[in-house]
Design goal:
The complex is a heterodimer. By secondary structure, chain A is of the alpha/beta class. In chain A, about 35% of the residues lie in helices and about 25% in strands. In chain A, the strands form 2 sheets. Chain A has an 8-stranded mixed beta sheet, with helices on both faces. In chain A, strands 2-1-4-5 form a 4-stranded antiparallel beta sheet, covered by helices on one side. Chain B has a single domain, classed as 3-Layer(aba) Sandwich (Rossmann fold). Helices cover about 35% and strands about 20% of the residues of chain B. Chain B has 12 helices and 12 strands. Chain B is globular and about 70 Å long. The model of chain B has no long low-confidence stretch (mean pLDDT about 90). At the A-B interface, α8, α9, α10 and α11 of A face α6, α7, α9 and α10 of B. Bound molecules: adenosine-5'-diphosphate (2 copies), iron/sulfur cluster (SF4) and magnesium ion (2 copies). The site of one magnesium ion (MG) has 2 residues of chain B, from α1.
């Protein structure tokens, strides 16, 4: 497989002195779909926003590098970033309606996105915009071009967002919970669309989600995040086969499944994500972990490679994986 | 067979909508358009379908939080739609509701102990020490413990607040709780805690649930019987195991096939039905089957004749022209 198109090295994001993303590293290969999973508040969106340099005002990149097409996105000037954003690297959000401009027609938003990077005559840009709407499966695209976001459903807004994000054929698409706000039948449509565009264009995708089903459907490789850190990394089949971190294991087992006995007590993750202020010296998962030992409370486990392409940050990962073999 | 706890018959809720203020044309959103089902004591009826299909409207109509346009709702033998205010007050002692958003369901200025005891106090059922003891008992039931009674809602996490809302709903020992997407706003790890609590409470206290969710995996986990809704109509009703083992309505089949399975190999191998398009506008008058605009199997008659909800050989009730009726299936 080709080398990485995007490399994140020891990235940290701070909000009011709290490291909400705390030294994470990963690489995305060309054409690959990398999923990032974890509960809300664990730093998934801040990671994506940091890569795109779209962090909220209170947040800043406090360390690390984002290497993309020979540049460090964490350091380049905003003008340089602007030329890349939406052009070579794009982001789509969870709330499609609120990420479109309510006062502009669909056509104007698409044309603006195209013209920002690939200036063309109005008629050329309009033709490209129409082709993009058709490519993302919008029925009656000529009519939709003239409409405003409020006239579109959530699923259609998300299609328009994807059309805008992909109009300039970026090499990397970051998708932050792109289907979380949608119904399952519309989610299935959008995921199929993303798969088709991926195979047609070879775009790499970083897919942020909390849904293990979406991960299983879309991802080649998976990062599991907890409290600002990566706690496990593996190829998708390997991860579902055996979990080497208790958090991953519980995240997978705590959801009701279509193939499990109904009404049976579901495994739970006790407690809640610790506040960043309350993080002590040991493992960040220690307060909720069924495998916890004295060692865990005293010393934070580093993310260590345990097999090719596979890493975990747990002192007891062998015991955890062995326990997972026993059906819960 | 004993009489069901709740029996809904041909229920309709139509909301009038204005179409611009000079227009004389009166339009209605047919949010619930002829729904029937029954629910026994201690059972859980799951109500599932895409957003906008009328689940919340139906749940609200059962408690008469919205007024039904037509049809009947019999609860413990009495018609909820026919009683006067006093009768409704009396009936509501036995039916409670839990909503999706635990934040807006609790008064921020009230210590949670008072909020939980409020239904008992307002109805003059308990006071003083007996009330305090009941509140302590309720807090313990939902896994929080009586020491929390003096704290305020903002001091609790989302999952804890949903526990408080559940405690308040239990205060009057209802026979029925309508749960409208009670876990949809919660994180996955908290969701399983609340589902476990709801199942355990039912086993212990024996109340029935109408459990509303757009998430079929959750519906399967908690329900005994499932109603699948589409555009205000029931398209399929069946016992849980029958519905999930052999969904008969093309919409139910599409819904189940759209759930991504948390198992990469099974997910890759699975047969998928990807529906085209989206829900039609609920104000457009409907001809034929409500699902015909998106149905992969639609024939000419589907566009003109509305299929009735009929019993099939599996015991499921299905509204689809293409599923043979019980007798025909048995003969075949
Ligand atoms: N605009 C903001 N201002 C202050 N804190 C924020 C802001 N957005 C997110 N946070 C905090 O940053 C942390 C990581 O959030 P986020 O990356 O959004 O998590 P996720 O996407 O995994 O749910 C959380 O603790 C959250 O409370
Ligand atoms: N108060 C109301 N006035 C007018 N239309 C409404 C009202 N409440 C809901 N609706 C409409 O009724 C339909 C059903 O809504 P709802 O019962 O909330 O569905 P669900 O809970 O399944 O998402 C939708 O088309 C919705 O827009
Ligand atoms: S290091 Fe210890 S506390 Fe942390 S996840 Fe592993 S077993 Fe649990
Ligand atoms: Mg997020
Ligand atoms: Mg609803």
């Amino acid at each position: 497989m080709a080398g990485p198109i995007l490399t994140v090295a020891d990235l940290a994001v701070a909000i009011a002195g709290r490291r909400v993303v705390d030294g994470i590293s990963f690489a995305v290969k060309t054409g690959e779909t990398l999923a990032i999973v974890g509960e809300s508040g664990c730093g998934k969106s801040m990671t994506a926003f940091a890569i795109m340099r779209l962090l909220p005002q209170a947040a800043r990149i406090s360390g690390g590098a984002v290497l993309f097409e020979g540049r460090d996105l964490a350091r380049i000037a905003e003008s340089e970033m602007k030329a890349l954003r939406g052009n070579r690297i794009s982001l789509i959000f969870q709330e499609p309606a609120s990420s479109l401009d309510p006062l502009m027609t669909v056509a104007d938003q698409l044309i603006e996105a195209i013209n920002a990077h690939k200036p063309a005559s109005h008629s050329e840009a309009a033709a490209h915009a129409l082709a993009m709407l058709r490519a993302v499966g919008i029925a009656d695209p000529a009519r939709r071009m003239r409409q405003y976001p409020f006239e579109l459903s959530g699923g259609m807004c998300q299609r328009v967002m994807i059309a805008i994000a992909l109009a300039c054929r970026p090499s990397v698409l970051l998708a932050d919970e792109p289907t979380t706000a949608l119904d399952v039948t519309i989610q299935a449509q959008i995921l199929e669309l993303m798969k088709r565009l991926r195979s047609e264009t070879g775009t790499s995708i970083v897919l942020i989600t909390h849904d293990m089903g979406v991960v299983a459907d879309m991802a080649d490789r998976v990062l599991v995040m907890y409290a600002g850190r990566i706690v496990e990394e593996a190829a998708v089949d390997d991860l579902f086969q055996a979990q080497h971190h208790p958090y991953t294991m519980l995240l997978m087992r705590s959801v009701p499944r279509l193939d499990a006995p109904p009404k049976r007590a579901l495994p739970v993750i006790e407690g809640t994500v610790p506040s960043y202020a309350a993080l002590g010296t040991g493992c960040r998962f220690a307060s909720r972990c069924p495998f916890v030992s004295e060692h865990c409370r005293a010393e934070e486990p580093p993310l260590r490679q345990i097999a090719p392409g596979r890493a975990t940050a747990c002192w007891h990962h062998e015991r955890v994986a062995a326990a997972g073999m026993v059906p819960a | 067979m004993t009489a069901p706890l709740l029996e809904v018959q041909d229920l309709k809720v139509h909301y009038p909508v204005r179409t611009g203020w000079l227009s004389r044309r009166k339009l209605f959103v047919r949010a619930v358009d002829g729904v029937s089902f029954a629910l026994g004591r201690g059972e859980t009826l799951g109500l599932v379908g895409e957003s906008g299909c009328g689940k919340s409207t139906l749940g609200n109509a059962i408690l008469r939080i919205v007024e039904p346009t037509a049809g009947s709702i019999r609860f413990k033998g009495e018609d909820v739609t026919a009683v006067d205010r006093g009768g409704l007050h009396r009936l509501r002692r036995h039916m409670q509701m839990i909503f999706q958003d635990p934040y807006s369901s609790l008064n921020p200025k009230l210590p949670v102990g008072e909020a939980i005891g409020e239904p008992l106090r307002v109805r003059g059922l308990l006071k003083g020490r007996a009330l305090a003891e009941r509140v302590a008992e309720l807090l313990t039931l939902v896994g929080l413990g009586p020491e929390h009674r003096g704290r305020y809602p903002h001091e609790f996490s989302g999952g804890q607040r949903q526990r408080l809302v559940i405690a308040r709903a239990l205060a009057l020992s209802p026979d029925l709780i309508v749960c409208d997407e009670p876990v949809s706003a919660l994180d996955v790890s908290i969701r399983s805690q609340i589902l476990n609590l709801l199942v355990a409470l039912q086993q212990r206290l024996g109340m029935a649930y109408v459990f509303i969710s757009h998430d079929l995996s959750v519906i399967r986990h908690i329900s005994d019987r499932v109603v699948v809704m589409y555009l205000g109509h029931v398209v399929e009703v069946a016992d849980r195991d029958v519905l999930f083992a052999r969904p008969l309505h093309p919409y139910t089949q599409a819904l189940i096939s759209a759930i991504p399975l948390p198992d990469p190999q099974a997910q890759r191998a699975k047969r998928r039905i990807i529906l085209k398009g989206e829900l039609p506008s609920p104000t457009e008058p409907l001809t034929g089957c409500p699902f015909h605009t998106r149905c992969p199997l639609a024939e000419d008659r589907c566009r003109h004749v509305k299929p009735a909800l009929e019993r099939k050989a599996s015991g499921a009730y299905v509204a689809c022209h293409l599923v043979p009726p019980a007798a025909a299936a048995a003969a075949a």
